[in-house]
Amino acid sequence: MKKKKKSKIKKATIVFIVLDTLVAICFFITYGPWDYLRNLYINTAMNTMSHQYLARLFYSQETIDEVMSNNYFITIDEEVNLDDIVIDTKDPGTYKDEYDKAILQRDNPDDLYKVLDIKVGSSNAYLVAIYAPEKVKLIAKEELGTEMGERVITMCERYGGVVCINGGGFVDYGYGSGIPIGYVIEDGEITWSDGDPATTRSQIIGLTEEGKLKLMNNATGEEALAAGVTEGLQFGPFLIVNGKSMEIVGDPWGKAPRVVIAQRKDGIILFLVVDGENYINGASLGDLVDTLEKYGAYNAANLDGGQSSTLIINNELYNNPPAAAKSTNGRYVITGFGLIP
Questions:
Q1: Where is 24: in which H helix or E strand?
Q2: Is 149 in contact with 141 (CB distance < 8 Å)?
Q3: For the chain, which residues make up each domain, given as ranges?
């Protein structure tokens, strides 16, 4: 009897030691000397839709406001000029620099796309150059408005896509995801809206019928259609508009897995997907802008990242999303963009 009692006491002691250690680590990270970790924690929590309480759990509103005021970005307040995009995606044979060459040079002039394995910051990333911009379309789960989402790999196969990425945000009902946030536009029709398409305004990432990337800062769904958008969704921020990069102060969102859709002046569309563990590593917004500038992006928009980050090529998961998503062949999401031959 005494041995069993001692064994139980010993186990309880170990459990309390582990818990005390974890609490000590949390408080050291939260109140210790590393401003970066504090700022990362606060910015990450405050830039989510449903986890802002995690910042307020440890910090006063005054501290949160101070961190947020020192880490921010300034959105580019101008409309994309589609006339600047002159679609001519053939290999010219001469190149501006090594990055231009990496995009333009290809073995077969009839190739629809090319994949570059690159680094963004210190993280592995994948840049897909798509030479048929008119074939990039929105993909979405079969029935919008129901709680369960769909994996990008499933959507991509159903649409007949060869390269697909995830897209917009959604009301999160758990790992199975939920309903779209904002607008979804497909085949020239508004298939989802949070409000009246004539009056509800949002950031819209759209594509025209000829494959030009149209970024609209404060547009209604009907205005997007009138501007020629045939495929689109709501997300952001816009990283580059008309060749002008977003101004970034500090590190507003920290590092995380990221996904971007962009376009060069020659019309080549870029899908950029960056690996990383949630809130530990990956790419900052500044890392994205630096990389996109090198590869000639003229317009670019951030898409949903984190666990949602997914790149599908030829019906296979090509990137390495955070562990939970990788183990299930990608997270359930709602929308994305795909190269549909």
A1: helix 2-31
A2: yes
A3: 2-72, 74-339
Residue 21: how many CA atoms within 13 Å on its side-chain side?
Answer: 6
Q: In sequence order, what are the beta bridge partners of 129? A: 114, 270
Element (DSSP H or E) covering residue 204: strand 202-208
Residues of 220-255 as b/e, b for ≥16 C-beta within 10 angstroms?
bbeebbebebbbbbbbbbbbbbeeebbebebbbbbb
CA distances from 146 to 50, 143, 172, 187 (A): 19, 7, 12, 21
What is the three-class DSSP state of 154?
helix
Pairing of strands 163-166, 335-339: antiparallel
Does 203 have pLDDT greater than 70? yes
Rg of the chain over CA atoms, in angstroms? 22
Tell me the per-residue pLDDT of 264-318, one tens digit each, with 9 for 90 and over.
999 999 999 999 986 678 999 999 999 999 999 999 999 999 999 999 999 999 9
Lookup: tokens for 244: 């002008």
49/172 Cα distance (integer angstroms): 9
Q: Full-prediction pTM beyond 0.90?
A: no
Instruction: Output the CA angle 144-148-151, nearest 5 degrees.
Output: 90
